[in-house]
Amino acid sequence: MKPARARSGALLALLLCLAPAAGRGEDAIFVASQEAGAVTRIDADPGTGPVLLGAGPAGLAAAADGTLYLTHPDAAAITAVGPDGRIARRLQFRGQPFGIAVSADGTRLFVGDWQAGTLSRIDAQSGAVEAVAEIGREPAGLVTDVAGRVFAAERGGDSLAILDGVTLELRARLPVGRAPFALALSPDGDRLYVGNVRSNDLTVIDTRLLTVLATVPAGRSPYGIATSRDGGEILVTNQEAGSVSVLDRSLALRGRIPVGRYPEGVAVAGHRAYVANWFSNDVSVIDLDEHREIERRRVPEGPRAVVAVPAPVRAEAAR
């Protein structure tokens, strides 16, 4: 079954949840709508029109310069949308691109092939494939860290692969829960959170020792993960329960916040979280201080991934 149509494994809730540094403005929030084939910026007031991409986007990731990269599993392609909101280029990909992550310098993309069970490193400008590694079945969420490593959720193997981003050599493979999908790093990079869709739990990885710290209940079908700016809270979308679980650093459950229907991707910007609700075609905006939904914003059909792109540093703050 192709991931673009699968309810149990359809979209990378690949999150880039970077907190803005001092001197920065508000983060930009973008939502990818698979059914509508569009990406929309929703933080502007009243918002900007969607960028029509065609061939339902699946994975979504952002480079530090604000360029968005979206995978199209059914079209064997990757679209780059520039910071100006226009399509910058379309990269062809042999296979079924799904999960995607960007290198720290923005020059390389890491792309998982859902059908082939491979991870490719490609040039972000030309799309040229530089290296390919075989990993587990149905690679879903991908995350890179400051050490240059790539973490890949192997949904079909109930495991997590850790690879060297330069050589693509496998450094470790760790067992997690059933059907791991979404990944999120803590702000300090010391922990990786893995959402396991079929076992309804969250696995926590020590990224220094590459060991499993804990596995705790997370709600029904945990599909998206993000952390608060200080790393003190972990947000997990419960796809089948229409809610977001809030856990603290000790992994204790602090509450559940009702949102829209079939929530998937989640991203954090400042004191707010944004949740893409696939079935209700909207985005829930959550106040993280009060732990409640404060509004809903309509978006094109089938929103499934959301990303926060840090605003550029203002000139006066840079001096």
TrEMBL record:
Q: Which UniProt keywords apply?
A: Signal
- Range of residues in the leader sequence: 1-21
Question: Transmembrane residues, as ranges?
Answer: none
Tell me which domain of life the UniProt entry assigns to the organism this sequence originates from: Bacteria
Per its UniProt record, what Gene3D superfamilies does this chain match? YVTN repeat-like/Quinoprotein amine dehydrogenase (2.130.10.10)
Matching InterPro entries: Host-pathogen_enzymatic-act, N2O_reductase_N, WD40/YVTN_repeat-like_dom_sf, YVTN_b-propeller_repeat
PANTHER family, per database record: DIHYDRO-HEME D1 DEHYDROGENASE, PROTEIN NIRF
Query: What is this protein's record name?
Result: Uncharacterized protein
In its UniProt entry, the species of origin is given as: Methylobacterium oxalidis
